[in-house]
Amino acid sequence: MTATPPLLDVRGVTVTYGSRTAPGHTALHGIDLAVAEHETVCVLGPSGSGKSTLLRAVAGLTEVGAGTVLLAGRDQAGVPAHRRGVGLMFQDHQLFPQRDVGGNIAFGLRMHKIPRQETERRVAELLDLVGLPGAQRRAVGSLSGGEQQRVALARSLAPRPRLLMLDEPLGQLDRDLRDRLVVELRQLFRDLGTTVLAVTHDQAEAFALADRVVIMRDGRIAQTGSPVEVWRRPADAFVARFLGFRNVTEADVTDGGAATPWGTVPVPPGTPDGRHRLLIRPSGVRVGVGGPEEGPRAVVRARTFRGDHVLLLLECVGGGARGELEAACPLRSAPGEGAAVGVGFDAAEVVVLPG
Amino acid sequence: MTGRGTAVRLALLAAPVAFLAVFFLYPVATIVGEGLRDGGAWQLGRAGEVLRDGDTADVLWFTVWQAAASTVLTLAVGLPAAWAFARLRFPGRKVLHAAVTVPFVLPTVVTGAAFLAVVGRGGLLDDWWGVRLDNTVWAILLAHASLNFAVVVRIVGGLWSQLDPGQAEAARMLGATRRAAWLRVTLPALMPAVASAAVMVFLFTFTSFGVVQILGGPRNGTLEVEIYRQTAQLLDLPTAAVLTLLQFALVAVLLGAQALLTRRTETALSLVDPATNARRPRGAAEHAALAAVLTVIALLLVLPLAVLLERSLSVPGGGHGLANYRSLFSDDGGTFVAAPWQAVETSLRYAAIATLIAVVIGGLAATALARRGGGRTLRGFDALLMLPLGTSAVTVGFGFLVTLDEPPLDLRSSWTLVPLAQALVGVPFVVRVLLPVLRAVDDRLRQAAAVLGASPARVWREVDLPLVRRAVLVAAGFAFAVSLGEFGATVFIARADNPTLPVAVARLLSRPGALNYGQAMALSAVLMLVCTLTLLALERIRPAGRTP
User: Fold this and answer.
1) Are residues B259 and B352 in the same domain?
2) Which residues contact B380 (CB under 8 A, 6 or more apart)?
3) Which chain A residues touch B if contact means CB-CB below 8 Å?
4) Looking at residue B177, which CATH number applies to its domain?
5) pLDDT tens digit sequence for A288-328
């Protein structure tokens, strides 16, 4: 029995913009990525990291310089975009302005010569699905950003592509709608069994949507893993910083303790001695007002309200500690700005970064 | 993929290139060659003689300065109107916006006749105050300003109405005064449009023929009028050839300068829906400015056409009636073989055919030029397409007569010559209207269609065509109006027994007698009506606020 090939298999794909005679910027450097059937993969990265180029290369909209794109085991070299059977939802929707909502969603079905009755039935179904029942005759110009996004989604789903690609699917929506749609989309993809490759710069969105997260940096893959894995063990300092962690440093470890600019920090048991890169989660930084006299001391420079907790920006001022440090603190016990505090560390929240 | 794109582009360009080569470059080159060669040898000394001649210098000087003065005058009256149409909301704005375009699409012969009815002998001013301006340069300048008013209003006002006021507001929030914000933010954003409008007006007035022919009198002639005189009246081909080349060179320099200018000032602007930009006038200053703009429009654009209408209805011996119109149907006037009204049918038929040719040729060229990539060669072709506008129409017309009279292209006795010459003038307009719209189609819209399964041909049909459909209709309307009014070339090649409307009007005006004058006015009124109806139809299909 042979294993079924992954639905999407990207092997060593390199994309360079500019002409052959004057090559410019290389957007992708030998990317390897596989997406299994029914899997939802989110590509996460700062702008300019090559995420959108990856989608365009898979869709056949951008020429691949080196490497191969395989869909269900078939090489897509020379297959034009309209014959690849993948769906792509554009970042800014790109709804056809001269067609109404129904006309936009029906477009792909017409291209695939689906009979009219079947088309109408599926358009109505999709509009129900995205929460816009009966909107067929509305002009796309009259839709709000969120509604346009839903129509764009329905349009890309309509031809039932074997692979659905989403470029910043919830990009321009307000927080509330975003949170709601993430849940709805995940449910939807699960129900339909759709294979999804999405691109976003928003980690919350990626972690909520994806079975697997791919983090990109400068046209290369920095880390791949489940949201929990990536969150718990960032592959390197770049990923950690990209995920929003600020307490990243290099330190020498001896006897279960690391000498950091913030003083000696306990490391998880079993950490070998030597030079390491460390991440201290904000939740691993304990803050005590009027705590013990010995140990690092700091002043609270800023407080950011984060709903169920407060994020403190500390400036270390004594006890062998220097520099800035981030700490998460329960709402009730959070010290005010300008308060002098003692700082302690929790070894369980200290991560030794592999990279 | 790149190779295929080039092949497609070349295929698209084949027909326009062939059309221009056979019906523009070949006739013009032949005429110039005939003029400058004698017995197979180039006679360049002759060219030097003509260029050194004092008369040539006079004509050239007059042509340049009247064009410059016309441009300045047109900008002076047109820019305030552009502002008013872009930024103010007032009753009758839409109708007026359509109305100011009427003189532009009217045949120059009709505008000439209309101004003659105001400032000429027995005209309105003559009747009331005994003032006559015909045979003076003032009549020419006023008529040019009236004709090209719409160019400034459309090009500058179109952009102005879409400029994001947020830009100027941002400058104000950064501490700029209202004046400083206008000078440093709004004006620089408008400059490319102002420059482009100025170049267009200069080009049109530089090559002006019909207006100058009717209003200028014997002493005020442009290069184009002089070419006509040398070719048709003095039969001095060498001089005409040299003058044609001179005009050609100057226009080429002008177009080159414009291409350079637009490339340097082309910037991405933030544009908004024009409907959100206009508001009611506020304060005495704005009301006064609006009143001034409306007065100028009334005097410069509406009055001449109104007087023309009145004259067409006035009966010899006093009173009003339809006598002039009735006389169009009788064939005993002696001026023509057939009754004058047949010119209406002839004109409409020719213009319809010319429009079809212009839309197909111009559409193919615009599609090729709009494809991404390209480079210098394509831009060169872009400029080449504009050249028929700047080349002496008289030379083109005469060139047709000389070159297209032997197999395989023996068209001299064929009626197709006229529509072909008219289409030549229509093509640049079609390209100008279509190109910006085609270029504005977001490439990702095409990609969205491709990803949904549309083949390239299908993408063109499903995405490009619906978006440019209105523009195609607008372009067709322009081509139709321009073809209907074409005079310089048609006057040579229209057959005597089958003149077009402008040719018939000019012929009637050139003859003495109240009946001829009345008929000319009536025929002009008919021509005006046809053009106005075309234009109103265009306004209806034009997407609100969009301008070419």
Assistant:
1) no
2) none
3) 59, 61, 63, 80-88, 90, 92, 94, 96-99, 107-108, 111-112, 155-156, 158-159
4) 1.10.3720.10
5) 866 555 678 889 999 988 878 899 999 988 777 788 899 99
